[in-house]
Design a protein that fits this description.
By secondary structure, the protein is of the alpha+beta class. It is 30% helix and 27% strand. The strands form 4 sheets. The chain has a 6-stranded mixed sheet with strand order 4-7-8-9-10-11, with helices on both faces. A 3-stranded antiparallel sheet has the order 1-3-2, with no helix packed on it. The radius of gyration is 16 Å and the shape is globular.
């Protein structure tokens, strides 16, 4: 099973408030809006993927709570990217300086920026090529470091600006490099 994309007429454009209303009355669905105005409906994840996501978020939360260098987010957070797309990433993080530039009202809605760091965890329902395209979209909108983690193949693609993605086979950990200084993600629980 993959996600479903609804093609909408070109003259049918949602404001952020209208999109938020659609999400509010469809709480059981994970929805995204592409830069081309397509409404994407993503199925819930299975138990293994949910557990992997939880582990990943726990490690990110622990590092962030000790360092206070930024704000971390889970997959329920919407980001309004500069290209107009509204995306929710499996895990993401922004530097505190960028967070502090947002108004209290902006913080309550879809965040009007691309995160500095993003993780997409490939689930059984994901299409790898579509997820790779999303990572490229994040880069084009300002992402500084991205990890595409594929537990099934025990493979990681690392995305950095102006570089070809680096592919690692069966790594045991990943470094946050200069973006998340000192963060090391232990992949043992995810790759099992």
């Amino acid at each position: 099973m993959t996600f479903l994309t609804l093609q909408l007429p070109a003259n049918l454009q949602f404001t952020d408030e209208e999109f938020e209303q659609i999400i509010a009355v469809n709480k059981d669905l994970r929805l995204e809006l592409t830069a081309h105005g397509e409404l994407v409906i993503m199925p819930p994840t299975g138990g293994e993927t949910g557990n992997h996501n939880f582990d990943l978020l726990g490690q990110l939360w622990f590092w962030n709570s000790k360092n206070n260098l930024g704000k971390a987010f889970d997959s329920s957070t919407g980001f309004k990217l500069p290209n107009g797309a509204t995306r929710s990433l499996d895990a993401s993080w922004i530097r505190i300086e960028r967070w502090n530039t947002l108004t209290p009202q902006q913080r309550k809605k879809f965040l009007p920026l691309c995160p500095d760091f993003a993780v997409e965890l490939v689930s059984e329902t994901d299409n790898l090529e579509d997820t790779q395209a999303k990572m490229q979209e994040y880069l084009a909108n300002g992402l500084q470091l991205g990890w595409l983690i594929n537990p099934k193949d025990k493979q990681v693609e690392i995305y950095r600006p102006n570089q070809v993605p680096e592919v690692l086979q069966s790594p045991t950990s990943l470094s946050g490099e200069g973006v998340l200084s000192g963060f090391i993600l232990n992949l043992q629980p995810i790759f099992g």
